[in-house]
Specification:
Blueprint (H helix, E strand, L loop, with lengths): L4 E7 L3 H7 L6 E5 L9 H11 L6 E3 L7 H9 L4 E4 L5 H11 L7 E6 L2 H5 L1 H7 L4 E6 L1 H8 L9 H13 L3 E3 L9 H13 L4 E4 L2 H8 L6 H16 L7 E3 L2 E3 L4 H15 L7
Parallel strand pairs: 1-2, 1-8, 2-3, 3-4, 4-5, 5-6, 6-7
Antiparallel strand pairs: 9-10
Helix pairs in contact: 11-12
Amino acid sequence: MNLMKAYFFVPSDRADFLVKARELNYDELIIDFEDSIQLSDVKVSLKNLDQYGRHDEDWIRISTQNDFEPYLDQIISMGYTRFVLPKIANLIHLERLLNETLEKVKNLRLIILVENPEIYLSLKSILSKWSTSINGIAFGSHDFCSLLDLKHDLKLLESVRLELRILAGMFNKEVIDVASMNISEKDSFQDEIRSGFDLGFRSKFIIHPFQLDILNQFPFYNEIEVADSIEILGHLKDGKQQNAVITHRGKIYEKPHINRLLEIKNWGKSYYGIDRKIL
C-alpha cells in the first residue's frame, strides 16, 4: 500500500523503455513528447505510441508549441484522451489549446503543469473555468525557477507548493509534486519525498526506476506511529473512552484525526506486516 502515487515518465522515442516500463510498479504512465525528445524524433515516437501505448490508460505529455499540432491530431486519432499540458504561457494560450486543438477530444482529462508565474497566479481562474476537464495540477519547478532566476531548493519553494496543494484541495483536484533530477542519492531523494508528503502531496512525478524503487519502499510512518494509531482506534472501537476527545501519550486526538489514524493503521499493516491479532 503506497501512500504516494507514482506518475512515471517514459520518453516516447525509446521503444525499449516503453516495453520495460510495463514491468515496473508505477501508478500512472506518462509517455513524453516534450522535453525528453527532439522534434525530429516525433515520427518514431508516434510509431512507438501506436505499437506500445495504451490509449485507454496512458497519459501523454504533449508539446504545446504550434509546430506540434499536426502530430497531436495523430495522437488524438489513436484514441488518447489524457494529456499533460506543459509550457502554458498564459490564459489565452490555454484557451486556444482547449477550444481549438483539444476541443474534439471526448472525455478529455488534463494535468496542468504550473511552470511560470502567470499560470501560477491564474490557477484559481483556470480551475474554476475548466474544472470538468482538469484531473490535476503539477508543479514544474525547474522551469519555474529558471524563469525567475531562483535557486532550485524545495525549502525556498515550500510556500508555492503549499499554495498549490491548498488550491487543488479547494477544487478537489489531484496535485502532483515536483520531478527530481536526482537519480543516485537515496537519502536526499527520501528527504524530497518526505517534504512533499508532509505538505499534503499524495502524488509525485518520477523519471527513473531508481526513484520509483525508493518511493515504493518509503516508510511514510514509523512503527510507533502505527502502534499508536492502532491503540487509539481500539479505544474508539471498544468504547473504552466515550469522550469526543482522546488523550494518548500526552497528545489530544479528536474526531478530525480519525481518517489520518486509519490511514496510518492500514498503511502500517501493509508495510510492516503487523500481525492481524494485534490489529
